[in-house]
Design a protein that fits this description.
By secondary structure, the protein is of the alpha+beta class. The protein has 11 helices and 4 strands. It has a 4-stranded antiparallel β-sheet. Strand 2 and strand 3 (263-266) form a beta hairpin.
């Protein structure tokens, strides 16, 4: 019978992978050092936008509300139109948050990956005891953590200012605030990072990678914005020919039209049957018009639509991340 030698307890075991001590943390420090300018700019952006949101929500909103109340006490008309700085500021910050991913895509494709592939510093790092996969993981994980922290803070501040002062807002919830006050803002940023890395690895040149990554993420956001209304079934309201369908306040109307022979006909011009009562009745009978309808999304549909869009973006992010890792393994095998 052959004896099997068992390792003694506490005996040193062979390492599974020869990685120099501190290599992982060294890679992180290298990423931070190489892109410290981008880190400083992002920090200033987060602090600046965060400060603006705090000022809008804590100072500007109270000032504008006091102005409106004073206008009401004076008996003046259109008091709700006397101030609009809070609403305009929120809309502008929402616009910046909604499209900040374009800058991230340009940075990831051009500076983060594309430039290092072009000048050979990536290959140099791979010869210093850092595997290509470990290098890529650090390249994506470090900015992902920084972007997640900053974007999450801005989204939370935006939600705080939005929900605390909705009476001062002049823009609907399907505008720039749709992305800015939900997880879709973060999902777009992470997707831009992954798509930019994939473009940089594929093209290996910063300028083409920058252009392709920016165009790809912009096209994705455009398609999703065009089909956003179809992500969740809308509510349909109908009426007779003597009135118009009921649409609640703050609802996002996506379609309206006429009911002709029980069938919905979109964008029907109601003035086609204008005239005297007899002329209108004759027109209605000839067309088979039985009423009008309107399809809309109430504000309660925000979260279903937001979460579905976020899920689609995260799915694209996962695909791009898997693709860039497989590409690195294939090219360095």
């Amino acid at each position: 019978m052959t004896a099997v030698a068992h390792p003694r307890t506490g005996a040193p075991q062979p390492a599974a992978e020869a990685v120099p001590p501190g290599a992982s943390w060294g890679t992180v420090r290298t990423v931070l050092r190489l892109h410290r300018t981008a880190l400083v700019v992002w920090t200033l952006v987060v602090v600046g936008l965060g400060g603006c949101l705090v000022w809008l929500g804590a100072v500007t909103a109270d000032d504008e509300r006091a102005t409106v109340e004073a206008c009401d006490r004076a008996g003046q008309d259109f008091c709700d139109m006397t101030t609009s700085f809070f609403s305009s500021g929120m809309d502008l910050i929402g616009l910046v948050l909604s499209y900040s991913f374009l800058v991230v895509a340009a940075f990831a494709g051009g500076s983060l990956i594309g430039r290092e592939m072009e000048n050979g510093t990536a290959h140099l790092a791979w010869t210093q005891g850092i595997s290509p996969v470990r290098w890529l993981t650090a390249k994506l994980a470090v900015p992902a953590l920084v972007l997640t922290t900053g974007t999450t803070a801005l989204v939370l501040l935006y939600r705080w200012a939005w929900y605390g002062n909705q009476d001062l807002l002049a823009y609907d919830w399907m505008g720039n605030a749709f992305t800015a006050r939900g997880p879709a803002a973060l999902a777009y940023v992470l997707c831009a990072l992954a798509v930019g890395a994939l473009a940089g690895m594929l093209l290996r040149r910063p300028l083409p990678a920058l252009a392709v990554a920016t165009a790809t993420t912009w096209a994705l956001s455009l398609v999703l914005s065009l089909y956003r209304a179809r992500l969740w079934p809308p509510v349909t309201s109908t009426s007779t020919t003597k009135g118009f369908p009921y649409i609640p306040d703050a609802a996002w109307q996506v379609e309206n039209g006429a009911l002709i022979h029980g069938r919905q006909v979109a964008n029907f011009a109601s003035w086609e049957c204008d005239g005297s009562a007899a002329e209108m009745r004759h027109c209605v009978d000839d067309l088979g018009l039985t009423g009008y309808y309107a399809s809309y999304h109430p504000e309660s549909h925000y979260w279903p639509i937001e979460l579905l869009e976020t899920g689609i973006i995260l799915a694209v992010t996962a695909l791009a991340t898997v693709a860039v890792h497989r590409l690195v393994r294939r090219r360095t095998a």
